[in-house]
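Below is a filled-in request sheet from our internal design queue. Each sheet records the structural input a requester submitted and the sequence that came back. We keep these sheets so that new team members can see what a complete request looks like end to end.

REQUESTER: design group, bay 2
PRIORITY: normal
MODE: inverse folding
CHAIN LENGTH: 245
BACKBONE (tokenized):
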């Protein structure tokens, strides 16, 4: 290790090309990630914007609700395909809104995937467990103004009858006193070349909007209201675009 790298490590700063762990990427502010990595992700984001727009023309309605708020927020969304996170992350990245993505830990079996996700702002969660380390990590991200994108359904849903949401997102938001912002997507379940995909952003749900009560009661109410708003947005998009699932 060079003298400069040793000094950076002592100061808690990340090094440009080597010596950083995946935890370093998870636990440092996105804006403090090394410049070479940010430039790489920026290039990938721009390529994805062009490619996905050409293949599946997508549009985010009311995007200003997502982009004009400087607060850290938990962004929740229904999950139809691997296009879902691309659309949101690309949009927020290009608008310079720091966003993190919660991804399932199974992807960590592929080292290149972990390498890429960590630099793109992703961090893993082990599904089906009460992973308080992840919750605390998310709270830190939200507290410093980063958004956290999470899919409460946990997996891609191909039929409404299969939808089942998990409430881990609410405790992340509650601990950080962060709002929860619903987003819905339609048209991505069965992607077809040049077939449009529609996304709509809802207003943030503030904790002060919920009925006063005990902490656990408010948590349960946020879990209920959050996905209820997501499905309301989804259903309104379907009504306005008949034939789009």
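RETURNED SEQUENCE:
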């Amino acid at each position: 290790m060079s003298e400069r790298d040793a000094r950076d490590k002592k100061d808690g700063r990340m090094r440009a090309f080597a010596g950083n762990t995946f935890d370093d990427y998870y636990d440092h502010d996105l804006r403090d990630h090394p410049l070479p990595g940010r430039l790489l992700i920026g290039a990938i984001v721009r390529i994805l914007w062009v490619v996905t727009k050409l293949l599946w023309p997508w549009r985010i309605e009311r995007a200003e609700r997502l982009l004009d708020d400087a607060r850290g927020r938990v962004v929740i969304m229904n999950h139809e395909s691997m296009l879902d996170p691309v659309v949101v992350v690309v949009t927020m990245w290009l608008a310079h809104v720091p966003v993190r993505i919660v991804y399932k830990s199974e992807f960590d079996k592929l080292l290149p995937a972990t390498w890429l996700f960590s630099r793109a702002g992703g961090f893993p969660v082990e599904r089906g467990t009460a992973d308080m380390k992840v919750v605390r990590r998310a709270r830190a991200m939200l507290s410093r103004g980063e958004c956290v994108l999470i899919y409460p359904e946990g997996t891609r849903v191909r039929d409404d009858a299969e939808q089942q949401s998990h409430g881990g997102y609410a405790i992340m938001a509650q601990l950080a006193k962060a709002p929860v912002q619903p987003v819905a997507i339609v048209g991505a379940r069965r992607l077809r070349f040049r077939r449009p995909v529609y996304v709509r952003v809802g207003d943030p749900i503030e904790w002060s909007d919920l009925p006063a009560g005990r902490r656990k009661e408010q948590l349960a109410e946020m879990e209920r209201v959050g996905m209820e708003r997501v499905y309301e947005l989804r259903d309104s998009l379907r009504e306005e675009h008949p034939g789009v699932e």
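SHEET NOTES:
- Residues 1-10 have pLDDT under 50 and may be disordered.
- The radius of gyration is 18 Å.
FILED BY: M.R.
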